[in-house]
Each structure stands twice: as structure tokens, then as C-alpha cells.
Design goal:
Layout (H helix, E strand, L loop, with lengths): L3 E2 L1 H8 L3 H9 L7 E2 L5 E4 H15 L4 H12 L5 H41 L2
Length: 123
């Protein structure tokens, strides 16, 4: 049997607050979270893996609406694999574009640091 985790444990494991976990459940990003006999949420290891993936999407700039679309497709099963892949590929392109822009900006910052180091060396 798969181990279950309380909302506090999942909060510690994922770094998300209990409020965020409840919000994700409310808007449908987390579906099918079990409850114990007292009505308390019981998260599975599968739930935690999914939460970690949602965190990765969020950190890389995916909107909550797009995360919701992905989650909805996921809950519809195997017939949505192509749509899920396409959504992730679109997000991947956005992330790669952002990484390219960051690298270009970092290069300019490094040039300016080099410029200031040269000026300091003249004194």
C-alpha cells in the first residue's frame, strides 16, 4: 500500500503552503486527493510527484491557467497525450526564449563589469 502524507508533511516536502495546496485542489490542479476517516487530506506519493511537476511548470513561468489546462487534459486520460505534449512543447519554446534573453542580458552585464574592472585598474 502506498504511503500517505498529511497536508503539513506535503507542505514540508514541497515547500508549498497548506493554503496553496488547498487552492490548487480548489481550482482543479490537484484532483482526487483522498481524505481519511476524519476528513483530513491524505496525499499519496503520486500526488507529491504531480505537485513537484506543477512547481516546475510554475517556476519556469507557466501560468496557472495553462497549468489548469494541462491538468484537465491529464485527467482525461491517454487520449490527450498529443495535446499535453504540444502544450509542453509550447511552454518549452517560451522557456528557451527566456533563457536566450537572460544569457544575452547576462553577457551585457558581464561586459559592464569588465569595463569597470578596467577603469579600476587605471587608478
Amino acid at each position: 500500500m502506498e504511503k500517505s502524507f498529511t497536508i503539513q508533511q506535503v507542505s514540508m516536502i514541497t515547500g508549498l503552503s497548506g493554503h496553496t495546496l488547498r487552492y490548487y485542489e480548489k481550482i482543479g490542479l490537484l484532483k482526487g486527493v483522498d481524505r481519511n476517516e476524519h476528513g483530513y487530506r491524505q496525499y499519496s506519493e503520486t500526488d507529491i510527484s504531480w505537485i513537484h511537476f506543477l512547481i516546475r511548470l510554475r517556476i519556469t513561468g507557466m501560468t496557472v491557467n495553462d497549468m489548469k489546462s494541462f491538468s484537465d487534459l491529464r485527467s482525461q486520460g491517454e487520449s490527450t497525450i498529443t495535446a499535453r505534449r504540444e502544450l509542453l512543447e509550447l511552454h518549452q519554446r517560451k522557456v528557451l526564449d527566456e533563457m536566450k534573453a537572460l544569457a544575452e542580458n547576462l553577457e551585457k552585464i558581464e561586459e559592464k563589469i569588465g569595463h569597470y574592472k578596467k577603469l579600476e585598474g587605471q587608478n
